[in-house]
Specification:
Layout (H helix, E strand, L loop, with lengths): L3 H8 L3 H8 L9 H13 L14 E6 L3 H4 L3 H16 L3 E6 L14 E4 L4 H10 L3 E4 L9 E5 L1 H14 L5 E6 L13 H12 L8 E4 L3 H15 L6 E4 L2 H13 L9 E6 L12 E5 L1 H16 L7 E4 L1 E4 L7
Parallel strand pairs: 1-2, 1-3, 3-4, 4-5, 5-11, 6-7, 6-8, 8-9, 9-10
Antiparallel strand pairs: 10-12
Length: about 325
């Protein structure tokens, strides 16, 4: 495992700066560019290099549904993007990164395919396919009859978390989650983690609506939502929370620390994604590992298969794994 010192050396900053950024220290002023260097260094150091066939001279566009600023608040998408870029480097492909608010800069006749990371409206899918009809989607599947897609089974991942809590004698299980909003749309997207949590907990006869808190995907929202749960529920606070992303979990841990609530003795926490930050915070975060590197690699490989003549669209489902660390009782 890469150390904080390794990350500091790669990013060109001090170990103290790395530690405070990875712990989302709200009192530490740091430029977004420095944050980006640190997060990217932490993610890149976790990747394994693999020998592979090379596809030099293939030019593709990586289109991210977030803005650069938004990407720093949700490292899940940043790590997928880095996985794509690493695979392209191995294949000696020429990949250019665009955020959706500047796709007009893509020169259509200069790219041979697009990898679209995130979630896109019908209008956005149309705009992408007008640039190039060969589009692979990562983390969404807008039309699996036409386009390749790489996705996660969030339903199974959610069940893994709940099953673990049940085996460690938790019954009062809460949920902190986020909902995403497509550009130019007012209604948030349905989140599969939230829907799966509600369904499975109801099947078990353990669901309580007042144990569910929903906001947006960011550290600050995780902090706000957990503070709200602590205030509203008091002694009825669940003994365990599934938190639908690690960035939300980081904020939630901070709120529990401030309230003097011991982790995991009083409240156990499991997040989702296993971003690099999860290993370094206190206590180290138990989480569902999402293989973002594999997601990125699979998207590039799917595009290569299209270059080689595959005509039929396919949907790639990448597995997940529960990683138990210090934020849960065992």
């Amino acid at each position: 495992m890469a150390t904080i010192k390794d990350i500091a050396k790669r990013a060109g900053v001090s170990s103290a700066t790395v530690s405070r950024v990875l712990n989302y220290d709200a009192t530490f002023p740091v430029a977004d560019e420095t944050k980006r260097k640190i997060f990217e260094a932490a993610e890149e150091l976790s990747y394994r290099k693999r020998a592979t066939k090379r596809y030099a001279n293939k030019a593709i566009a990586i289109v991210h549904w977030y803005t650069e600023k938004e990407e720093l608040n949700d490292l899940y998408y940043l790590s997928i993007r880095l996985g794509i870029e690493e695979r392209c480097k191995m294949l000696e492909m020429n990949a250019q990164v665009y955020f959706f608010d500047n796709i007009d800069q893509i020169v259509a006749n200069e790219v041979e395919g697009i990898i679209a990371v995130g979630k896109f409206s019908d209008q956005q899918v149309k705009a992408l396919t007008e640039i190039n009809p060969l589009v692979v989607f990562v983390d969404s599947s807008p039309d699996e009859d036409k386009h390749d897609a790489v996705v996660i089974d969030f339903e199974k991942a959610t069940e893994k978390v709940i099953d673990y809590f049940l085996t460690t004698e938790h019954e009062k299980i809460g949920f902190i989650g986020g909902r995403e909003l497509l550009k130019a749309q007012e209604k948030p997207l349905e989140d599969l983690r939230e829907r799966s949590f509600r369904r499975y907990m109801k099947e078990l006869g353990l669901f309580h609506e007042n144990f569910v808190y929903i906001g947006a995907f960011s550290v600050d929202e995780g902090y706000r939502l957990m503070k709200e749960a602590i205030t509203n529920l008091g002694n009825d606070l669940p003994t365990a929370f599934f938190i639908s992303s690690d960035v939300l979990a980081v904020g939630s841990l901070r709120a529990l620390h401030e309230a003097g609530i011991p982790i995991p003795e009083r409240v156990s926490i499991i997040g989702l994604n296993d971003i690099s930050v999860s290993k370094y915070i206190y206590p180290s975060l138990s989480t569902i590992k999402v293989y973002t590197e594999v997601m990125g690699e699979s998207a590039v490989d799917a595009l290569v298969e299209r270059f080689e003549g595959r005509k039929i669209a396919k949907k790639i489902l990448v597995s997940t794994k529960l990683v138990v660390r210090k934020s849960v009782r065992t």
